[in-house]
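Practice problem 4.
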């Protein structure tokens, strides 16, 4: 990608690179192998063509990431496309804790939690998470992705069914694929449809309902009161993935159950350290006996090296800062409201967002990468998200706020959105 901005006309892009068309995105690579497993690779041209057109938006290296601002292609930009909701990745105490942990424990434990990969730091982190969420216990994994893999696959056996929201995160789907039991899906955030699906499951099967608390792309909040009621009626257990809810909603950032005053109604809460908690890693919180089962049957926990001490220390300290400074949660919510209301008032479609995750629908895929690129050239970093992560023709720019953004930075972002929205005919 060139360092200097050049305007990209979506029509010209489509004409010059027909490979960037909808057909190319729908291209079916299955069944083209013959005897050569790599044959399909040669047919995959989309990324290469987008790079040639200078509109390839993925894997772009940052020069620096300073929290609310970053540097890319040698220039400073406003970071409106991270999950660093509380702005803690640059907090001096969090950095110091990671440095101290490296000095004390080294860079890696080179083994899984089960064998040589557990330290007192991991156990302290688990205790603090359990305390924060009011759970009996917590179990720390190396990533949030692996948490869903290990939790779901260890619980959903041949006599069980996983029932998932259609908009759930990929790691939930992958956990279901790894599980021996069946997976059923219900319409996004539709408790009535969940009721129908659970009603079809025979009494010989044990259901586990799995939902995101805050949906990672839409920024909407699960209808937990209705879902809890339906689960109770059908004797279904409930797992809530609060990856984007911890530090963002609920009392002092305690997540979705707390947001609705429904503490104690969720069987298992999954979370990650890679967002509000300024690190990497994941956890599941719940009943100690259930976690003991996962400890011994969760393959992604047992067969993968444990969370490095520096990451554990950073997450632990970030959690302590969150507990000491709950005003950060109010602040990220306020910034989100400011951005969401501003975009909505201009006439942008921000979907059902209720949180600092705010999707802006651009629609056409090529128009979206063009908008993304021009926005970046104007100094605002966002994330383009398109098919297959969204429906075809419903591509979005995912934006997200931080507690540490200033009001002026949000106003700056709004101004850039407005002028590009007008330029591209998305706004009056
Ligand atoms: C809802 C949800 N669950 C799980 C994950 C995985 O988290 P991690 O980045 O810690 O692997 C993500 C990450 O994007 C997520 O959005």
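Answer key:
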């Amino acid at each position: 990608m060139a360092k200097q901005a050049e305007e990209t006309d979506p029509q010209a892009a489509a004409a010059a690179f027909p490979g960037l068309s909808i057909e190319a995105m729908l291209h079916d690579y299955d069944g083209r192998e013959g005897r050569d497993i790599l044959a399909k690779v040669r047919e995959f041209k989309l990324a290469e063509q987008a790079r040639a057109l200078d509109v390839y938006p993925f894997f772009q290296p940052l020069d620096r990431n300073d929290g609310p601002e970053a540097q890319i292609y040698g220039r400073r930009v406003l970071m409106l496309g991270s999950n660093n909701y509380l702005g803690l990745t640059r907090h001096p105490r969090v950095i110091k804790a990671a440095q101290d942990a490296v000095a004390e424990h080294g860079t890696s434990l080179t083994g899984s939690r089960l064998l040589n990969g557990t330290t007192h730091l991991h156990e302290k982190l688990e205790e603090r998470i359990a305390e924060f969420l009011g759970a009996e216990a917590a179990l720390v994994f190396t990533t949030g992705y692996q948490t869903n893999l290990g939790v779901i696959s260890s619980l959903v056996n041949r006599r069980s069914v996983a029932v998932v929201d259609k908009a759930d995160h990929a790691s939930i789907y992958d956990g279901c694929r790894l599980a021996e039991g069946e997976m059923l899906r219900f319409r996004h955030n539709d408790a009535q449809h969940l009721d129908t699906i659970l009603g079809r499951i025979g009494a010989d099967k044990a259901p586990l309902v799995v939902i995101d608390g805050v949906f990672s792309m839409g920024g909407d909040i699960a209808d937990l009161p209705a879902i809890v009621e339906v689960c109770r009626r059908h004797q279904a257990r409930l797992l809530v993935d609060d990856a984007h809810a911890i530090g963002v909603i609920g009392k002092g950032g305690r997540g979705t159950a707390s947001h609705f005053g429904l503490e104690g109604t969720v069987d298992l809460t999954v979370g990650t350290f890679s967002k509000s908690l300024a690190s990497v890693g994941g956890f599941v919180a719940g009943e100690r006996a259930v976690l003991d089962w996962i400890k011994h049957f969760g393959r992604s926990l047992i067969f993968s090296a444990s969370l490095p001490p520096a990451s554990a220390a950073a997450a632990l300290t970030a959690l302590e800062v969150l507990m000491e400074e709950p005003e950060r949660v109010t602040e990220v919510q306020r910034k989100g409201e400011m951005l969401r209301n501003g975009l909505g008032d201009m006439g942008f479609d921000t979907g059902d967002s209720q949180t600092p995750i705010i999707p802006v629908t651009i629609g056409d895929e090529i128009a979206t990468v063009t908008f993304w690129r021009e926005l970046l050239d104007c100094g605002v970093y966002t994330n383009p998200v398109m098919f297959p992560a969204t429906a075809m023709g419903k591509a979005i720019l995912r934006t997200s706020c931080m507690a540490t953004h200033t009001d002026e930075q949000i106003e700056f972002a709004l101004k850039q959105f407005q002028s590009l929205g007008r330029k591209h005919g998305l706004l009056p």
